[in-house]
Amino acid sequence: MKHLALALLLPLAACRDTTPAKTELTPAAAVPAVVEALDFNRDVRPILSDKCFYCHGPDASHRKAGLRLDEAAGAYAHLKDSDSEFAVVPGKPESSEAWLRICSDDEDEMMPPRKSNKFLTAAEKATLKRWIDAGAKYEGHWAFQPVKEKLLPAVRDEGRCHNDIDRFIQARLEKEGLRPSPEADRVTLLRRLSLDLIGLPPSAAELKAFVDDRSPDAYERQVDRLLASPAYGEHMAMGWMDVARYADTDGFQHDRTRTMWPWRDWVVSAYNRDLPYDQFVRWQLAGDLLPGATPEQILASGFNRNHMLNNEGGRDAANNRVDYVVDRTITTGTAFLGLTLECCRCHDHKFDPLPTKDFYRLSAYFNQVNEDG
User: pLDDT grade, residue 135 (50/70/90)?
Assistant: First the structure.
């Protein structure tokens, strides 16, 4: 998992500009226009989700005019009251009723309607037109798509790129007409690095050693030193414990103390040992169900016991049990699926493709736990 942290830290030493020039904005006319291909999930879905899905999205109970714009089948189908009109005609904005409504000034026709208090900016309209012109291609929700290797972008100034991350940064700077800032001084660099990796500032002795070290790999050796520190795992575990709703008390009524710190220490150890991510996930979700599960794998599954516990005398045990199952389901969605599942517990999600039925299909995994609540 350490490579994930490094991916965030490399830019600190990347795109080094040894010239004394200040950050500057290159005149737009001097920078050749770069037209980046549209990405549906990055560029188009956020606009549709913000301005359209509330009335034309996944929630069938709130859908207007029978029009669904969150999936291709709905967008390409003929409109409810017409066999000759379509919301979106790939490649033909002039024939796309959705686009015509977006451009309309007629109070009865314009979309989004004025009473919604939602308005499309000129840039958003231009993006939607480009999208339709290019074929109005849809993509599945980003959380369900396999990770694909991204091609390295072309840059004009190759000399500023020392690694692959530099290329992405340099490409964006060039797109915006900007130059990198001069490299920070060594004290600042080490302070940033130390705070990012272990959450602590460097000592005076560590700063002096780095300032005096003029070897070509001085920065890289500081990275290695900090990754080897026990404080690395402690710092990285903090974020995960927030996601996993870790607590040493029950959270209700008397808020009694409970012993969850062994799981916390396991998380710290997992980061410090660089435990492979697939094992980090599998052991926490179901380490106790693995064939011949080791004590460590069983301990890791404490992830599922981090939820609040209610020991109130008048509390119904069955109600407690349902609350715990729901908590585990929602936490799994947040931590491992990149999704917020709270909405679809009660109704089909209004913005994401998550029907209520799927919430309870997922919760069925946890609903088999033999506990009385």
Answer: very high
